[in-house]
């Protein structure tokens, strides 16, 4: 039996409290009026250094933004027109001044900061649940010893998904311009999409997702524990069936979830691969957290039945899905870059120009680093090595979620400051607390699983 | 690779009271025996189809591409459809031999050899099309970046058609090496078992002097693992690059970012369907039903279900985003309301029925384990996946941006004849293979006999897992 150590419990509570304070600070310090925004902008202009360079360089007219595509193609004016059109559509055409636009972005910042961290930790629990379902559906012989650990990680799904649900429902126009009726009234494209992008349907969909995911988590855990208690194989067979149907349900809802919560932040933009790209991020982060949790519990001597071969396998999954993520990242990026269709490229132009270091730096963290670190098979059995790689992967995928949300909601008014850090602390604390409590409820040794002996005797 | 213990809940992979010797005899039998009448009949038919196709190819090249049904709007039709179809079929072989090796799926051992053979023969067929669909195929060598006397005029590396050249040629060579490496112990087995001096000589050459020492086996396993690790990204990237042929363009319906993973899933889907089609017949005629069991067929059906499910979701995403984009041109793409009701409605519905609806029957366990039904479904999927490529290519091209260029495509007998020719060629190769190569990786099957063989599972059930039974094998 695992018990959440007092020190760790205290640590997580401190994180939560610090996080709450920081998040509250973020919400309370947003500018309330256009005048305040003007002051901030004036103050920033007088700095004229460091981070503000990007702002100054790109300015109001978007001249810098246009360069990327044009220089890449060796043509003039192609992307420029698209950007100008985009800008017009957003500002002048709607009678919104630049300051109002900035005001809106600044007010959105604490929302976005909270959402990025909230989703990041929720997707870890969800991804772990998918991994769990795959183990059942594929009758895996190596992983049953890890079932309690994975179930522990998925404990966070219920609170995590409820928080994410509340954020996306109450964020309103902070995240989703299509919820702004005035904007939609003037925008033919958004009107055409209103059959899908309307609030009641959005709400219903979100309810279906979190209900479906949590029900599977609830019943699979229940059956798994019943199996250990009663040694009745029927519970295993039930779980097998549930897992298969959950995977089907997940495959469908994950796509619509990605469109609803992320793609519709820039409602003019679309990409068919987008949903699977988010899945890759989710999955690799989840496997990484499963590995880290396993290593932690093993270091406490609580998982004597888990050997370094299991760790090796987990590390292989981290390695493989890091590459898989990169494959999808590249597939989406390259195709849009290559075809250079104006309505699609704006998505990447924003990210490359305003988030350049993060955008490409993420590739080093998510791809170059893991591929070099985890290639060697001996290293994959060394716990501290896997931990090191895992931390890098998690940081990289946090940045990935950050880049999904921030450019679409706060644009170039992004910072990495108190609201962002506080949100990470809050959700990290919550995650540790809930997962720790979840792990400490039952024995960590799964019993009576038909494959458990295979898993315990596992060699390769 | 694998431990000797296996959960009793797992069904046996080798049926009957087989010993190591039995495996060698069963696998060697088709090679060491003589072809029967029906083999010669099928071989003759395939050969005729092949020669007919060869005639069509020679006619095309000597007369001009105009003998095909292509027009100014639809410059790609059956040629590239068949190309993508054949490449896609090839992918199952690498998936079975490489990806399933990485996932330590023991059931792959009975099917990997034939699946890899299928890969190689399918890629050979695919490789014909990029050459013969050229207007000037005799200048095909210009696609290679070789120093030359035109001031060293090089290729432009920006074209996915050039990436295709590298992808397909790499794929073929790596698959060939991977396959041949696995064949060494099996060729050696034939070499040692045959009584004919001629066969001994031939298989002696083919087996590269394999003597099966411990060090050899150790290296053999390492090489297999490394090649599997390399072949897995290769298999993903090859069909990704094939998908780039379309996705990098700006043609509505072609330009879609989901294409890379979606094409790969479709390739595995169609490839497994072809493996089923071939192996269901082969297990029967070569008496290999104890090795390629109903369980193998069920597992492959599950892979078909999974990849078919992924493809289905991709169809729905394509359809949805086509609408969501709000781009009016998207209404004429291969998965749109316009396509479902337009002049190519039959092609649209052929795709939906063959790929989306019929495979759903495999969710029923009884049907999944029904060999005849599996054969029928697999055949339908092969047709459906041909239509998928046809729809993507032809429907999307037939109604592009300018209405003044809208047109239809009508294949000529040369289009059809060339396709039939490649099917003939494929079967010529496969039939020759089935008579001269050990169609089951007997060396690998022997490694799982004690853990997954029916009699050993029974012995363990009777005497317990740790009982050391003495059975002559």
Automatic annotation (TrEMBL), chain A:
| Keywords per UniProt | Membrane, Transmembrane, Transmembrane helix
Ranges of compositional bias, category Basic and acidic residues? 45-64
Q: Give the residue ranges for region: Disordered.
A: 45-68
Q: Does the keyword Transmembrane helix apply?
A: yes
Parts of the chain that traverse the membrane: 7-28, 111-134, 155-176, 196-216, 242-262, 274-297, 317-337, 357-375, 382-406, 418-439
Membrane: present as a keyword of the record? yes
The protein, known as = Quinol:cytochrome C oxidoreductase
Q: Which organism is it from?
A: Aequorivita echinoideorum
Its taxonomic placement starts with: Bacteria, Pseudomonadati, Bacteroidota, Flavobacteriia, Flavobacteriales
């Amino acid at each position: 039996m695992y018990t959440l150590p007092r020190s760790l419990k205290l640590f997580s509570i401190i994180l939560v409290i610090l996080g709450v304070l920081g998040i509250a600070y973020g919400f309370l310090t947003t500018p309330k009026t256009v005048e305040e925004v003007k002051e901030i902008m004036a103050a920033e202009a007088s700095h004229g250094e460091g981070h503000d360079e990007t702002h100054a360089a790109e300015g109001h007219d978007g001249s810098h933004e246009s360069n990327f595509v044009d220089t890449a193609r060796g043509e003039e004016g192609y992307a420029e027109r698209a950007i100008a059109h985009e800008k017009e559509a957003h500002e002048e055409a709607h009678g919104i001044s630049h300051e109002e636009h900035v005001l809106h972005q600044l007010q959105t910042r604490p929302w976005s900061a909270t959402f990025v961290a909230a989703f990041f930790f929720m997707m870890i629990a969800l991804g772990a649940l998918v991994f769990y379902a795959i183990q059942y559906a594929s009758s895996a012989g190596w992983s049953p010893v890890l079932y309690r650990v994975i179930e522990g990680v998925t404990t966070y799904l219920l609170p995590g998904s409820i928080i994410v649900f509340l954020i996306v429902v109450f964020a309103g126009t902070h995240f989703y311009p299509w919820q702004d009726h005035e904007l939609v009234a003037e925008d033919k494209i958004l009107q055409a999409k209103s059959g899908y992008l309307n609030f009641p349907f959005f709400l219903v969909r979100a309810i279906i997702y979190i209900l479906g995911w949590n029900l599977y988590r609830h019943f699979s855990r229940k059956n798994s524990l019943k199996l250990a208690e009663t040694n009745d194989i029927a519970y295993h067979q039930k779980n097998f069936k549930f897992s298969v149907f959950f995977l089907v349900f997940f495959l469908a809802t994950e796509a619509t979830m990605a469109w609803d919560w992320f793609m519709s932040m820039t409602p003019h933009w679309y990409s068919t691969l987008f949903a699977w790209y988010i899945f890759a991020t989710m999955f690799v982060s989840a496997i990484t957290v499963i590995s880290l949790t396993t290593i932690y519990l093993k270091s406490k001597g609580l998982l004597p039945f888990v050997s370094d071969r299991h760790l090796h396998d987990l590390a292989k999954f981290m390695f493989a899905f890091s590459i898989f993520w990169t494959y999808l990242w590249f597939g989406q990026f390259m195709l849009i870059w290559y075809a250079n269709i104006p309505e699609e490229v704006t998505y990447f132009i924003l990210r490359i120009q305003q988030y350049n270091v993060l955008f490409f730096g993420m590739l080093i963290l998510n791809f170059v680093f893991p591929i070099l670190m985890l290639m060697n098979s001996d290293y994959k059995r060394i716990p501290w090595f896997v931990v090191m790689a895992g931390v890098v992967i998690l940081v990289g995928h946090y940045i990935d979620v950050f880049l999904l949300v921030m450019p679409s909601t706060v644009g170039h008014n992004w910072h990495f400051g108190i609201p962002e850090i506080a949100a990470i602390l809050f959700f990290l604390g919550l995650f540790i607390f809930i997962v720790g409590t979840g792990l400490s409820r039952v024995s960590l040794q799964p019993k009576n699983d038909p494959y458990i002996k295979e898993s315990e005797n596992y060699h390769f | 690779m694998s431990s000797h213990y296996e959960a009793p809940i797992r069904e046996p992979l080798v049926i009957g009271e087989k010993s190591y010797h039995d495996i060698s005899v069963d696998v060697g039998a088709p090679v060491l025996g003589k072809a029967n009448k029906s083999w010669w009949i099928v071989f003759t038919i395939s050969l005729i189809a092949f020669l007919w196709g060869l005639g069509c190819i020679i006619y095309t090249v000597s007369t001009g591409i105009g003998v095909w049904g292509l027009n100014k709007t639809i410059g790609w039709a059956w040629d590239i459809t068949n190309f993508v179809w054949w490449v896609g079929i090839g992918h199952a072989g690498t998936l079975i031999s490489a990806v399933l090796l990485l996932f330590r799926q023991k059931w792959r051992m009975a099917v990997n050899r034939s699946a890899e053979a299928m890969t190689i023969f399918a890629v050979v067929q695919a490789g014909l099309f990029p050459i013969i669909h050229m207007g000037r195929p005799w200048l095909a060598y210009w696609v290679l970046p070789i120093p030359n006397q035109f001031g060293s005029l090089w290729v432009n590396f920006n074209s996915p058609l050039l990436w295709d050249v590298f992808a397909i040629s790499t794929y073929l060579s790596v698959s060939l090496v991977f396959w041949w490496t696995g064949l060494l112990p099996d060729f050696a087995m034939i070499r040692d078992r045959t009584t004919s001096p001629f066969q001994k000589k031939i298989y002696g050459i083919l087996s590269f002097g394999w003597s099966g020492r411990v060090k050899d086996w150790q290296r053999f396993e390492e090489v297999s693992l490394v090649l599997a690790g390399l072949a897995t990204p290769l298999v993903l990237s090859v069909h990704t690059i094939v998908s780039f042929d379309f996705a990098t363009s700006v043609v509505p319906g072609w330009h879609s970012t989901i294409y890379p993973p979606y094409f790969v899933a479709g390739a595995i889907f169609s490839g497994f369907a072809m493996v089923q089609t071939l192996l269901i017949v082969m297990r029967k005629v070569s008496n290999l039903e104890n090795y390629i069991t109903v369980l193998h067929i069920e597992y492959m059906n599950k892979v078909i279900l999974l990849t078919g499910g992924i493809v289905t979701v991709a169809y729905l995403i394509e359809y949805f985003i086509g609408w969501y984009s709000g781009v009016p041109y998207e209404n004429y793409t291969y998965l749109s309301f316009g396509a479902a009701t337009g002049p190519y409605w039959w092609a649209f519905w052929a795709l939906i029925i063959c790929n989306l609806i019929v495979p759903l029957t495999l969710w029923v366990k009884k049907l999944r384990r029904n060999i005849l039904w599996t054969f029928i479904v697999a055949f339908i999927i092969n047709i459906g996946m041909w239509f998928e490529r046809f729809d993507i290519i032809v429907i999307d091209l037939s109604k592009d941006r300018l209405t003044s260029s809208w047109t239809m495509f009508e294949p000529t007998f040369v289009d059809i004849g060339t396709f039939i020719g490649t099917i003939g060629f494929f079967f010529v190769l496969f039939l020759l293979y089935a008579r001269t190569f050990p169609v089951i990786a007997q060396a690998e099957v022997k490694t799982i006999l004690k853990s997954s063989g029916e009699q050993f599972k029974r012995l363990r059930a009777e005497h317990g897992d740790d009982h050391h039974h003495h059975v002559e094998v």
